[in-house]
Write a structure and sequence with these properties.
Helix content: 10-25%
Shape: elongated
Strand content: over 45%
Distance between the termini: 35 Å
Oligomer: single chain
Number of helices: 3
Order of helices and strands: HEHEEEEEEHEEE
Length: 243
């Protein structure tokens, strides 16, 4: 009888250990990120740049798509379904390229471009559905800090000579291409699908997120509210620790 009881206890203990090992303690993700810029304020800025093509002597090209970067995260799982995730993301790319050739008390030629960079550190809850061995869908909601920066570069010649500084400053202000940066509040909501290759490794087949950020950016009349609503696509490798 005692042996039967000990055997039953062993079965229960083994079963509990097996259940406890049904999910990894930590999931570390690293991968490639592609961002599309958006939001009403950002769209208005792009519309303003593109209106320059309607004026003679001005050529403008813009790009909201595929701002390249990386994403890394660590999710600390409390149980099979719930965890706390910390996330870092960085994207950068050119957003506008313009050229101007006009006669203004002589021939003036201007070439300019602006690069944008976006950096986020966020954390929040992550929910996973571990019903199938092959795939793990997940959903997360993260909040934290978002930093955006706009870095323009210009070259200007007037009758073959370098433009005076005041002319270049006026052109940058008029073109909405002045240097600016700000740290603000942001949140990210989205999810994705991991394809499990085993107990230790998975491939993040897709992660799709919406990033909303609120900033105060310098304008002609001081600090103006500037909101962004970006879409982000990521994929990469997940390492599962403490299975």
């Amino acid at each position: 009888m005692r042996k039967l009881f000990l055997a039953a206890v062993c079965v229960v203990l083994v079963s509990c250990v097996a259940v406890a090992q049904d999910f990894p303690n930590v999931e570390v993700f690293g991968g490639y990120s592609l961002m599309k810029l958006g939001g009403e304020d950002m769209n208005d800025t792009f519309d303003y740049w593109e209106e320059g093509n309607e004026e003679e002597g001005i050529s403008v090209s813009t790009s909201k798509w595929l701002k390249k970067g990386f994403m890394a995260s660590a999710a600390f799982n409390m149980n099979e379904y719930f965890g706390i995730e910390a996330n870092v993301q960085y994207n950068t790319g050119d957003i506008v390229d313009l050229s101007i050739e006009q006669n203004w008390e002589g021939t003036i030629e201007i070439d300019g471009k602006a690069k944008m960079s976006d950096f986020s550190i966020m954390a929040g809850p992550k929910f996973a559905l571990r019903k199938h061995e092959a795939i793990t869908p997940f959903f997360h909601f993260l909040i934290g800090m978002n930093r955006v920066a706009f870095d323009p570069s210009f070259s200007c010649s007037w009758e073959g000579e370098e433009c005076p500084a005041y002319i270049l400053e006026e052109i940058q202000e008029e073109a909405h291409m002045t240097e600016a940066s700000d740290k603000g509040f942001g949140y990210m909501i989205g999810g994705g699908i991991d394809v499990n290759l085993g107990d230790a490794v998975a491939i993040r087949l897709i992660e799709l997120d919406y990033l909303k950020a609120y900033h105060e950016m310098g304008g002609s009349e001081g600090e103006d509210e500037f909101q962004m609503g970006n879409m982000n696509l990521a994929f990469g490798i997940v390492f599962k620790l403490g299975q």
